[in-house]
Amino acid sequence: MTSNTYYTAAQHGEFEVYELGDLVLEQGATLRGAQLAYTCYGKLNEQGDNAIVFPVMFSGTHSAMAPYVGEGLALDPSKYFIVIPNQLGGGLSSSPHNYAAPYQANYFPELTIGDDVRAQHQLLTHLGVTKLKLVTGWSMGAQQTYEWAVRYPDMVERAAPISGTAKTTPHCMLYVDVFCEALTSDPAWNNGRYDNSEDVEQGLRRMAHVFAMMGASQGLYNNALWQNVGFSSQQDFLKGLWENWFLPMDPNNLLCMAQKWRSGDVSLHTDGDLAAALGRISAKVFVISFEKDMFISPDDCLHEQQMIAGSELVSIPSAWGHFTMLGIAPEDFQMINDTLKKLLNTSV
Amino acid sequence: MTSNTYYTAAQHGEFEVYELGDLVLEQGATLRGAQLAYTCYGKLNEQGDNAIVFPVMFSGTHSAMAPYVGEGLALDPSKYFIVIPNQLGGGLSSSPHNYAAPYQANYFPELTIGDDVRAQHQLLTHLGVTKLKLVTGWSMGAQQTYEWAVRYPDMVERAAPISGTAKTTPHCMLYVDVFCEALTSDPAWNNGRYDNSEDVEQGLRRMAHVFAMMGASQGLYNNALWQNVGFSSQQDFLKGLWENWFLPMDPNNLLCMAQKWRSGDVSLHTDGDLAAALGRISAKVFVISFEKDMFISPDDCLHEQQMIAGSELVSIPSAWGHFTMLGIAPEDFQMINDTLKKLLNTSV
């Protein structure tokens, strides 16, 4: 267990911790005394059926998704009981950097998207939730969204996976490998046995550059659209946004999430038959795709959407590519919010 | 000067060497006793006006482009005198790995695309060439194509830059930085003072992965189109094509070319005014763009094509992305060849 002041309420806002007990993971290990960090907004009604789950992306916490929650927005806490669960391995829940021997640091067990969703289901059941009006999430949050809709079809009324896949694509696996190599090539990483995460600064900066290159479109850079959000040069944008994002994080946490991302696959429920897995979904689904996304191409989203009965594809053209979700351009935030609102207003 | 059996005629086919003498570089250094390696096909006519120049891409040699030359093809040696010049720094011409002290290895001077084109112009003048029916090249070859058309407008009748830019885009600079970091992060690189290039194997493999990720489209991987060309798995494709390509190369040569790629900019001729530089072109220009290219997006090609009077844009939709040029899919080769033939048949 190493200390890292980044993974605190001071950095991410207050959160609750649910004691999962001994969580038997899909890959076989048992995470004893596992903890799930989460935040809630709004009130659960008597029937327990006004809940929304909004899981988070790679390297993110509840705080990254919180801007989408607010009165008058789609995710309106005056109407819904909204839960943002943090990922296992994400730094606030049980994670490599905060877990005890013998499973600490690089010995933390392999996780699956299914482990996250099972843990979240345990929490929601404990809270009295019976139905989910909506599950939505971005990127790894979309992976969890698909997992929810496939694993608990009777509970999920609507689902909006945003720029993420039910089954990680081969190209996306290569992407994960490339950014992990950028990180682990730092000799200071030392097979995960660094003393302080800051020692791995060079690897974290390199990883940030890979994210920057793939995370926003060519047009974002070539038209210097970083100017619109207060950066003075491309160099300033790389440092001020991308390096600044990853530098305070724990490399083992990042690698744990990356491995989970890479292995995401709802077809594990159906002996590898993706169409059969997606065929289990009874929720009304809006698949939200970002046109300029290099992590998850529009074709990847379309491919899966076509296997989901009654689903719709919504395509958003922003130059921010995969990072359209951050809503840095107000029109992007608006389109995503409007899409979620429309889905919530669709009767099921 | 280090030995590397990769940079030999045994590996790349026979080639000629032109003695450039003392080449004063645009950045100020003098490359004394500079050599330009090249191959020729066909015969120069009496007037010296049936020549074609076909410069090569990053990490390539004349052998990579040779398949586009042949009787019945656009680049037909029974009609044209075709010269394929190797890049300075590319390993066969004067390069970090083969140059003498004090400019050897990582002390090799910075090159520009203009240096290549000036050296090529010196060669062609020596050979008696007066007019170029066509200049064409892919990627860094396209950079040289633009430089030819801007620098020597009276000599260049037609130009076909293929998936490359007249001015390197900011996103492409980031791409170059990312793959250079993948290479130089290897401690064995040792600031360019390795004993043998094979010592930098890990960095070369990592760099190959970055190229693989950005060089072909998501769809190439996600539809396992590597099966069409004899690979048994994605892993086999990464090793058999991409790692195999870069592993025998010299890291300092690659970094020398990368720096030249990054700094490519025809607007240096016109005080930074790109439209003015492209306005100097009198050649008939076909800009060839690859729709799924992540190095050079179709928008990047369009942006420059629109600044060239009388030019046309030809878009090729292959899943091979930037590496469409390799013609691994026969229809890609055919479309590129047909486009060059059409341009050669256009009167100017």
Task: Assign the CATH architecture of the largest domain in chain A.
Answer: 3-Layer(aba) Sandwich
Number of helices of chain A: 12
User: What's the number of domains of chain A?
Assistant: 2
**Shape of chain A from CA axes?**
globular
Q: Tell me the name of the CATH class of the largest domain in chain A.
A: Alpha Beta
Distance between the termini of chain A: 46 Å
Active site (chains A, B): 139 (nucleophile), 293, 322
Protein name (chains A, B): Hydrolase, alpha/beta fold family, putative
Organism (chains A, B): Methylophaga thiooxydans DMS010
Domain AB hydrolase-1 (chains A, B): 70-193
Short description:
Chains A, B: Keywords: Hydrolase. Chains A, B: It comes from Methylophaga thiooxydans DMS010. Two copies of one chain form a homodimer. Chain A is 36% helix and 15% strand.
List the helices and strands and how they pair.
The structure is a homodimer of 348-residue chains.
Chain A: H1 9-12, E1 16-24, E2 30-41, E3 51-53, H2 62-65, E4 81-85, H3 113-127, E5 132-138, H4 140-151, E6 158-162, H5 170-184, H6 201-215, H7 218-222, H8 234-246, H9 251-262, H10 274-279, E7 284-290, H11 298-305, E8 312-316, H12 330-344
Helix pairs in contact in A: 3-4, 5-6, 5-9, 6-8
InterPro entries (chains A, B): AB_hydrolase_1, AB_hydrolase_fold, HAT_MetX-like
Active site (chains A, B): 139 (nucleophile), 293, 322
Pfam families (chains A, B): Abhydrolase_1
